[in-house]
Each structure stands twice: as C-alpha cells, then as structure tokens.
Amino acid sequence: MTPEAITLDGQSLTLEQLSRLGSGQGQISLADDSWKRLQATRDIVDNLSKKDEPVYGINTGFGRFSNVKIPADKLRDLQYNLIRSHSTGVGKILPTDPSRRIVALRINTLAKGYSGISLDVVRRLVDFFNSGCVPWIPQAGSVGASGDLVPLAHIGLSLIGEGLIFDPKTGRYEAAEVVLGRYGLKKAELKAKDGLSLINGTQFICGVGSCAVEEAVTVIKSMNAIAALSLIALKGHPAAFDERVQMIRIHAG
C-alpha cells in the first residue's frame, strides 16, 4: 500500500490522519507557508543569539540557571546537553503507533512556526519520520509541568544519533547511529535554541491520548450495534425506545 501524503501546517491535522501516520500509512510534508513562518522566527533567534543581552533559552541556562549567561561558543553544547540531560525516561517502551503519533504531532506543532527552531532540524525530523524509523521512548518519566520534556528529549536523542532507534526492517531497537546510517539519514546539527524547541511541548500526552480517543470511538460505535443485537436476541420490546417516550425525559441523550 502506498503511504498517504499528508501535509502539515499546524492547524488542519485530523484524528483520522494522525491514525494513519501512527500506523505507518502516511508520509509527512510541510506546507509552504509553514516553511516561511519557520524561517521568519529562526531569523529572530539567530539575531538574538548574536547579542550580549541575555535571552532565556537562547543564551542562558534553564530553570534555576536562567540568570546564567552562556558564552556564544557554548550555545551549541548547551542544546546538546539539554537533550542528553532530559533523556531519562523509565519503564516499558512505548509501542510504535503512539511513538509515531508523538513525532508527527511534534512536527505539526513546529509547523506553526513559533518555536524559532532551525529549518534543517525540522527537515531531519521529517526525514526521520518518513523513513519509518521510530525513536526509543519510555512510557514514564514526564511530570508535564512545562511539557513532556523527558519523552520528547528521547526523540531529540534519536535525531542527534544517540540512544536507540527502532528499525522497521529488522524489527528491533538498535544503536541510533547505526540505524541512521542504514537509512542514509543525516544527524541533526543543533544550534541555538534547537534543543529547547524540540522538547518544549505536550505531544507525548496528546499522542497517547489520541490512541485512547480512537479506541473510545470504536467502543461507542460497537456498543450501539451490540445493544441492538442483544435486544433482538433477548426478544426485547422496541416500543420502549419510542422517540415520544425519550422526549419526556429532560436530560439530553
């Protein structure tokens, strides 16, 4: 089956499209307007990173170290260390379907064009998704206070060629650098703010939640058919479901 081409713009992604992306039946591209917005905000980040005044997340530390100015020649290291320090998830590994959804949702969020992330990093993320490879994402470890920092950091770790990646051809997780090389994928080269842009979001809970919503919709659709068949099998009285009877009750539904 040829994968469906799904264009993301940060606004129009549907649950049905996300489901296809999660099952590996979709390929991602970004809308032209998204690339323009990404470039515009990246230009702002590049300009700010060259100035002396501190700007949080660009040339400062994070959290309690937000008042610590980072030298220009250390801005790249800051972003790599942010990804590595937050890749601390624990527990069972998330199945590939929700993992793909999380990556797709992260791309969709970045497509809005507000993060200031480097365009090349977005390209690496899109190429990674379209290759069919899946990042190693543990199910536990995020507190959700300022986003799903820990699970999203594991995606960033895959992008820079560290940690583990699921190879759909071998059906197992292997060293990230080996899998990237096998698929001809380039490592992401992080610059100012790129690490922060990759991990500040709530796509983990949204991706996992979308699976739950989809299952709930299936249950609701099945429930009606099962209830109707059960009524027939039990020789129930359809008169009890007369619309006039239901209208007497004041509760909608």
Pick out its properties.
Fumarase C, Chain B, domain 1, 253 residues, 7 strands, single chain, two-stranded parallel ribbon, 10 helices, mainly alpha
Q: What fraction of residues sit in β-strands?
A: 5-15%
Q: How many distinct folded domains?
A: 1
Principal-axis shape: elongated
Total helix count?
10
The major β-sheet equals: 3 strands, antiparallel
Unreliable parts: none
What is the ordering of alpha helices and beta strands?
EHEHHEHHEEHEEHHHH
Order of strands in the sheet with most strands: 4-6-7
Structural class based on helices, strands and sheet pairing: mainly alpha
CATH architect. name: Orthogonal Bundle
Distance between the termini: 40 Å
What is the CATH superfamily classification? Fumarase/aspartase (N-terminal domain)
Task: Give a structural overview.
The protein is mainly α and 253 residues long. It has a single domain (4-213), classed as Fumarase C, Chain B, domain 1. The chain is built from ten helices and seven strands. The chain has helices spanning 15-22, 32-49, 75-86, 96-110, 119-130, 149-159, 176-182, 194-199, 203-233, 243-248; strands spanning 4-8, 26-30, 90-93, 134-135, 138-140, 164-167, 172-175. Strands 4-6-7 form a three-stranded antiparallel beta sheet. Strand 6 and strand 7 form a beta hairpin. Helix 3 (75-86) crosses helix 6 (149-159) and helix 4 runs antiparallel to helix 5. The longest helix is centred in the last third of the chain and has 31 residues, at 203-233. It is elongated and about 80 Å long. The two termini are 40 Å apart.
